[in-house]
Design goal:
Helices cover 46% and strands 14% of the residues. It has helices at residues 27-39, 50-59, 76-86, 101-110, 122-148, 154-159, 169-183, 199-209, 230-235, 252-255, 271-283, 309-314, 320-326, 343-357, 367-375, 381-395, 413-416, 425-430, 436-450, 455-462, 466-476; strands at residues 3-5, 10-12, 19-23, 43-47, 64-68, 91-96, 114-117, 189-192, 218-221, 236-237, 249-250, 260-264, 285-286, 295-296, 300-305, 329-332, 364-365, 400-401. The strands form 6 sheets. Strands 4-3-5-6-7 form a 5-stranded parallel β-sheet, sandwiched between helices. Helix 4 links the parallel strand 6 and strand 7. Helix 3 (76-86) packs parallel to helix 4, helix 7 (169-183) packs across helix 8 and helix 20 (455-462) packs across helix 21. The longest helix is centred in the first third of the chain and has 27 residues, at 122-148. The termini are far apart.
Length: 480
């Protein structure tokens, strides 16, 4: 298959080892072509009917289809049209008879790459395959280049396992804002977006594109810090400042000095500590608990939330002055359902990634699968797509990834799972909106109900801390 000499910038091609399918209703012709091409080193599949050919195409990645115009059940032009729609990467060489000039022209318009006429010499087939192989090599190289330049940068690609991928206009805007944010070393950045959209990846991208890239990137999940430990975890403490303080402790802010500090789920910070956080951000100084002196910091803050912070500000759950301080530079990541043009590219990336890591030989993705993925709502966004692909690759034991490896991909799948009449999912789906607060409130109620309103058990079930559950219960007015 295609080879490319990067140094000489010369495109090369190797016509050995192609996967070729022959579709002709003449057993003699199929046999002769197969023997000839096999001797040249190709893998050859044979079929006498369109139905048999499509079954092969569904289960194998075919480089070239040699197709006769005159066939039983369906003529070659109809087969050509279906092949180019369902298997766009498969190039087609037509076999035509004399006097079929108009059909040849029609075939080329439908996407056939080449043709040869009956009666033919086997060398004619060889020449047609060589011409097609040159095109396949060039096409493959162009795809590689296109794929390469969808990544934010070569530097980010090398440093981060799962780069941000997308060619849609909204993602181009996100990438542009990331690059601008990286240029400003001290400006605070607020990243917003639903769960699973890739907020931490954007934060890491800003870090790796900035001048602080050689320092450690510090990540803090604010919702995971117990309220009674928040101040000492963030700002540190001096030995003896409280009963269990047996030694000095460096806080997360001080540890991130000279680097970028990423505060995830910033909306979950208790209101009582927001004023202290604001002062540290404004003064760029931190004072440990129990200390009388302050330490200056060279730090840039990157924050993220999946909440509607402006709504929390209006309802007095988040300080307005802190919001304005964090909101110096905002980047909003759109949900996956709003950038369907990126789904095929993201799918291809993760299929390749998991095929390598799980030692699978998946050469092609069924175009019907890609279309169905585009119709799915992805409530879990890119994270959900990634997890679905990992599972599908594990289940796939053939060369073609199909919808059968994914299970159900209904746009309303999430909402159909809820049978409780009080569940907000169905109404939200009907109204085509996604209120995370309503869903979170319902899930918390269900967890409490299932555990007999035992907060310790419910917090474990929800995979959050006891204090985080307590705050959320107070937020939503849920009583013990």
């Amino acid at each position: 298959m295609p080879l490319f000499d990067e140094k000489a910038c010369v495109l090369k091609f190797d016509v050995d080892g192609l996967d070729i399918l022959i579709l002709d209703d003449s057993e003699r012709i199929v046999f002769e072509i197969k023997v000839f091409l096999t001797d040249l080193g190709h893998t050859v599949f044979e079929s006498l009917t369109p139905a048999a050919a499509f079954e092969i195409l569904d289960n194998h990645s075919v480089d070239i289809l040699i197709l006769d115009i005159k066939l039983p059940d369906m003529n070659g032009l109809e087969v050509l049209a279906k092949v180019k729609k369902r298997f766009p990467d498969t190039e087609v060489i037509m076999i035509t008879g004399h006097g079929d000039v108009e059909k040849v022209i029609h075939a080329m318009r439908l996407g056939a790459f080449d043709f040869f006429t009956k009666p033919f010499k086997l060398v004619d087939i060889q020449h047609a395959i060589e011409r097609t192989a040159k095109f396949l090599a060039l096409s493959d190289r162009l795809k590689q280049l296109e794929y390469r330049y969808t990544l934010i940068s070569k530097e980010l690609q090398d440093k981060y396992e799962h780069p941000i991928i997308g060619t849609s206009q909204v993602m181009k805007t996100v990438i542009h804002l990331m690059q601008k944010a990286a240029e400003s070393e001290k400006t605070s950045v607020l990243i917003t977006g639903e769960s699973g959209t890739g907020k931490e990846m954007v934060a890491r991208g800003i870090h790796f594109l900035s001048k602080r890239k050689d320092s450690l990137f510090h990540v803090v999940n604010c919702s995971a810090i117990p309220e009674n430990l928040f101040e000492t975890e963030m700002f540190g403490h001096k030995k003896g400042s409280f009963t269990c303080a047996t030694e000095d402790k460096i806080g997360l802010f001080e540890a991130a000095d000279k680097s970028n500090l990423f505060l995830d789920e910033i909306g979950d910070i208790p209101l009582v500590f927001q004023a202290k956080l604001l002062r540290v951000i404004e003064d760029k100084k931190v004072k440990k608990l129990g200390s009388v002196t302050e330490k200056s910091l060279d730090i840039r803050l990157i924050c993220a939330t999946n909440k509607d912070i402006e709504k929390d500000v209006r309802e007095n759950r988040f300080r307005l002055d802190l919001f304005h301080r964090l909101n110096t530079f905002m980047i909003h990541i759109p949900p996956l359902r709003d950038r369907q043009d990126d789904i095929a590219l993201i799918t291809q990336y993760y299929v390749d990634f998991f095929s390598r890591s799980l030692n699978r030989r998946i050469r092609r993705i069924d175009p019907l699968l890609t279309e169905n993925l585009k119709q799915y709502s992805f409530p879990g966004n890119v994270r959900e797509l990634k997890n679905l692909i990992e599972r599908a690759v594990i289940l796939c034991d053939q060369e073609v990834l199909t919808e059968s490896h994914f299970g159900s991909l209904k746009p309303s799948n999430l909402f159909d799972q809820c049978q409780d009449s009080s569940c907000p999912y169905r109404q939200l789906a009907l109204e085509n909106r996604f209120d995370l607060s309503a869903i979170e409130k319902h899930v918390i109620r269900q967890a409490l109900k299932k555990t007999g309103y035992n907060k310790t058990k419910a917090s474990k079930l929800l995979n959050i801390s006891w204090s985080a559950l307590d705050r959320k219960m107070k937020k939503y007015g849920i009583r013990d």
